[in-house]
Amino acid sequence: MHTTLIDVHTLNRHHQDPDWRVIDARFSLADAGQGAREYGEGHVPGAVYAHLDDDLSGPIVRGVTGRHPLPSVERATEIFSQFGIDESMQVAVYDGAGGSVAARVWWMLRWLGHDAVAVLDGGWPAWTGAGLPVTRDVPGVGPRTFVPNVRAHLVTDVEGVDRHRKDETWAVLDARTPERFRGEQEPIDPVAGHIPGATCATFDANLGEDGCFRSPEELRRRFEGLFGGVPVDHAINYCGSGVSACHNLLAIAHAGLGDAVLYPGSWSEWITDEDRPIGAGEG
Hints:
Blueprint: E1 5-6, H1 8-14, E2 20-24, H2 34-41, E3 47-49, H3 52-55, H4 73-82, E4 90-94, H5 102-111, E5 117-120, H6 123-129, H7 158-164, E6 171-174, H8 178-182, E7 199-200, H9 216-227, E8 235-238, H10 245-254, E9 261-262, H11 266-270
Parallel strand pairs: 1-5, 2-3, 2-4, 4-5, 6-7, 6-8, 8-9
Helix pairs in contact: 5-10
């Protein structure tokens, strides 16, 4: 069973196996249709396409939710069933963005109790760079019955974040860039800054220069330092909208540290209430 990362050569041996499902999760915040077009132009043989907005997010409620709220358990169950996933399937997921969107799929399946899911290390660039097969054919995938076993402890809400950010036995990690964390720039959301009490933990630092994840040992050192002595299940992770924070959760799991916590609403939900405090600068 592959539960965190998988390399291109292993996926190449198995991507057509009947008990494997490959998911293409390419997406661009700047152009919501770009990933689907790229999928149509070429993808890993046998891969189905998952759209971040349509398949991996719930409805946006203006002034209440963030930009990519979690779908309901029922909706997520429906989507994964349509993708032909049940408890017997090994899932591999990739994107073209260093794993930042693929990790959302990985985390959602883990949240729903499915451990046999791994992100393709290096993603689409690694696959094509290795000269591995590419097709435009859309696979005929028959639906299966996905049965969720929800792990509610992997999620916290805005009230939980507001409570725990003031508690020294908890850590709050922000996966966005240092510039966004410090409030120096905000290209996406209407308010700049960070949740007070949070620490900057930009997800890009999980990757080496080759675009692949750093070693488990390197990641363990990184996150143990960021945790500051708190246990992994007291480490809350957020980003702009609950997507790239999953990259940190994947890195934490790959480091052998266990399952940390996601705040799905993230910064874009936090700022919907003007009474919530805003941090700026380094801390």
